[in-house]
Amino acid sequence: MDELHTAASERAATAHPGPRRVVVGVAGSIAAYKAPFIIRLLRQAGHEVKVVATESALRFIGAPALAAVSGQTVSTGVFDDPAAVEHVAVAEWADLVLVAPASADLLARVRAGRADDMLTATILTSQAPVILAPAMHTQMWLNPATRDNVSVLRERGLRVIEPDSGRLTGKDSGLGRLPEPEQIVSRALAVLQQVRGKEGKEGAAVEQGEGGSLLKGRHVVVSAGGTREPIDPVRYLGNRSSGRQGLALAVAAVEQGARVTLVQAHVASELLDALPPEVTVVTAGTAHDMLHAVREAARDADAVIMAAAVADYRPVNVAATKIKKQVPTASDRVSGPTMSIELTTNPDILAGLVSDPPRAAQVVVGFAAETGDDDGDALFHGRAKARRKGAHLLAVNAVGEDLGFGDVPNAVVVLDAQGSEVARGQGSKTEVARLLISLTAELVNGS
Ligand code: C5P
């Protein structure tokens, strides 16, 4: 969390998506007092801000304060200036709608498609991305009604920021606190990075570093992140994959004109928010979820690139309740009791795509992080894996060993299904991604 927070603060300070127009919605929560800080940070980053507040928000914070800090009058009711049809004008003006704080009531109204005040009417009308930063008491946030509202809103593509845990109004503390303004603004700036400004303002939809058309009109599926296999309701078997290599592949495929479906497991939402709009994100938590999501997306795909770290094993039994810690007896005071979890093998998604392709003539690409041992070096094991899995391309990445490049963290040797070397690449994740995408495109285009 700390790491995430630091990265977020750094981006808040450095991101420059160019001037954009942000509607800041303020709903009725005590956290409304933080809205001026959010507005100020957005304006400091060079953006124009228009505040739309609900009636109850104005019981917590005065319209003059919001107007002064945003530099524009505050809109509240749809009947304030009927002739101007203000909700339509404001909705069309916005490059982004950021509601902070979003109360439980506001979430419910947006979910229901209500348009009973200026803020809900603006959200319903706007075509711009919407970020909701909820703030409420823990019980309200955890109530099944709110959980359901949040999940429906997320399914519809609205971004709902997770609230923080900490001091709430009064003496209590818990989950439901509005995240710090820097965190919220950092999230907003990440979304603005991919929004093209209105009226021909310079946009940054994709950093078109190596733009081309090698995959124009093609559909590419990329998996990213690391699956988590549940042990009980609170524990899981997981891995350290950040998903960055998969995201770099998705962006590199878009640079070449592809439509991309990214099947992601536990990739930080801040990284996902920075993806270009050509990437459709599908979420899969476990290896089984990923198997189904990848095969479904792959039905009309020209290429599938498996960059996710998929758990090889999962617990045979998932406990319905939290497994209790065993209390040490007098005899095992020194080392304590041991416990074991029985594991079973997960399906190999990559191998399955080769042996039972969802679509004919589909190009399948995999990754293999290898280490050398007494039997052979990383490349030796990579060649054996390439032959075993049968993918058209396998990018072998030697972990803790160089492959003749020196100490380069992202060095890959790309092998074909026979284990023969096709190419070598090194550099940033973006550079490795561009190499793999150009090799994939060659196979897709049959050259
Ligand atoms: O066997 P290993 O895990 O090293 O293989 C890595 C490659 O296989 C990656 O492309 C990974 O996404 C894929 N994989 C898979 N299903 C698994 C395990 C790995 O698709 N169960």
Automatic annotation (TrEMBL):
Pathway: Cofactor biosynthesis; coenzyme A biosynthesis; CoA from (R)-pantothenate: step 3/5; Cofactor biosynthesis; coenzyme A biosynthesis; CoA from (R)-pantothenate: step 2/5
Sample GO molecular function, one term: phosphopantothenate--cysteine ligase activity
Record region (Phosphopantothenate--cysteine ligase): 220-447
EC number: 4.1.1.36, 6.3.2.5
Catalytic activity, reaction form: (R)-4'-phosphopantothenate + L-cysteine + CTP = N-[(R)-4-phosphopantothenoyl]-L-cysteine + CMP + diphosphate + H(+); N-[(R)-4-phosphopantothenoyl]-L-cysteine + H(+) = (R)-4'-phosphopantetheine + CO2
Location of the region described as Phosphopantothenoylcysteine decarboxylase in the Swiss-Prot/TrEMBL record: 1-219
Domain Flavoprotein: 21-190
Cellular-component GO terms for this entry: phosphopantothenoylcysteine decarboxylase complex
Note on how the cofactor is bound: Binds 1 FMN per subunit.
Binding site for CTP: 312, 322, 347-350, 367, 385, 389
Entry keyword Flavoprotein: yes
Residues in DNA/pantothenate metabolism flavoprotein C-terminal domain copies: 215-440
Keywords annotated in UniProt: Decarboxylase, Flavoprotein, FMN, Ligase, Lyase, Magnesium, Metal-binding, Multifunctional enzyme
Role description: Catalyzes two steps in the biosynthesis of coenzyme A. In the first step cysteine is conjugated to 4'-phosphopantothenate to form 4-phosphopantothenoylcysteine, in the latter compound is decarboxylated to form 4'-phosphopantotheine. Catalyzes two sequential steps in the biosynthesis of coenzyme A. In the first step cysteine is conjugated to 4'-phosphopantothenate to form 4-phosphopantothenoylcysteine. In the second step the latter compound is decarboxylated to form 4'-phosphopantotheine.
Family from the record: In the N-terminal section; belongs to the HFCD (homo-oligomeric flavin containing Cys decarboxylase) superfamily. In the C-terminal section; belongs to the PPC synthetase family.
Protein name listed in UniProt: Coenzyme A biosynthesis bifunctional protein CoaBC
Source organism of the structure: Actinomyces viscosus
